[in-house]
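Our consortium's second objective concerns turning raw sequence data into structural hypotheses that experimental partners can test. To show how far this objective has progressed, the report includes one record in full. It was chosen at random from the queue rather than selected for favorable results. The single chain below, 427 residues long, was entered without modification.
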Amino acid sequence: MTTTALTRGPVQAAERSPAPDLARGFMLLLIAIANTPYYLWASEMSGGASHPVDGSALDKVVDFLIITTVDLRTYPMFAFLFGYGMMQLYNRQVSSGTSEVRARKLLQRRNWLLLAFGFVHAALLWMGDVLGAYGLAGLLMVWLFFQVKDRTLIVWTSVFGGLLTIGTVFSVIGAWFVAQLPADDPTARSIASDLAPSSDSMATTSYLVSIVERLGYWTLGTFLQGLLVLVVPMMLLLAFWAGRRRILEHPGEHLTLLRRVAVVGITIGWLGPLPSALDHVGIIDVPDHAAFVFYPVQFLTGFFGGLGYVALFGLIGHRVAQRRSGPPSGNLFLTDGPFTGAVQAVGKRSLTSYLLQSVLCAPVLAAWGLGLGQYLSSWSMLLYAVLVWGLTVVFAVWQERTGRRGPAEVALRRLVYGRPPRRPATA
């Protein structure tokens, strides 16, 4: 007879695998790099790439590299790690005696809470929050697909991928026809105006007004990014499949798969954005009113790029685990080295580090704060992003050395699991 109560709490240090934490920790750097260009609120932004139209040669080099390797590649990878983490949580609970029904309810409670965290994050600081999109997609995917057969997961991933591919093809065809319109055509001007990225919540000097604008952007983005674009649902389904096989916990048993996915995924992920990057730096010329074609191409190839990054960090995690000089529960900085240990410390506190990025960016860069975003360009904003990530590394290392969990992780765990029972006093 199975119990209906939780028989264990959150994951312990000895149960953590290096690959997911390494991936989360390093990709938070890429998330900072991807998000901070939106704080360049005083610059005219490109409709097809969301980077400043003008800039020095160094700015253009930075934009080119970010478009090809970072933009719309980080959130698919984090979606996969989010789904993989759900399967890990479920497996731990069920293996400890928790009923399957109770374990799924625990997952859904966590997804509801992430949706709430995302709402608060967007209201207070960052319009581009992804927690809400993950929480919303997680609610639907757990409800519909969490216990289906492996074959069903692959079939539905293929169906979603097919729909995204068809949409991309139609977008390319539509963009070709739209590109034939002269730039001064009223329809062309209207399309180009609609494509211009909105920076209203960054440029307004009123914090209260910025809240309304951020929440409007976040609400639309949560549904588009979480469900309608289909990338996050696809990633979650593949993560459920991979989590059942413990691919990231035991990467040494799946090296051939990981190598193939890394090579193919990263190749597609970097080649796909090339037209957008070349257009942005002026090597090719796509009319502004046809630049909408770049987004579906970025979404589709970003799916492959995100998978490639996951596989790459699975391989790196395998190498780290091989050369460990101590158990996983020991000192990360001694067993895995100072840099690798520091990145894992960030990955273990990924929610805190993600929210901390907004704390370090929005009040400093947005017009309603200090407004420093108006004085930066692409290359200097890249340096600022690296600095922000570096500060989160310092914070995470301090917490790791003092045996503390991230405050956001503590809050989420308390809300999900409740207050831990008190240990009886010993004589």
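The partners drew two points from this record. The mean pLDDT is 88. The CA atoms of residues 190 and 284 lie 22 Å apart. Both points have been shared with the crystallography group to help prioritize constructs.
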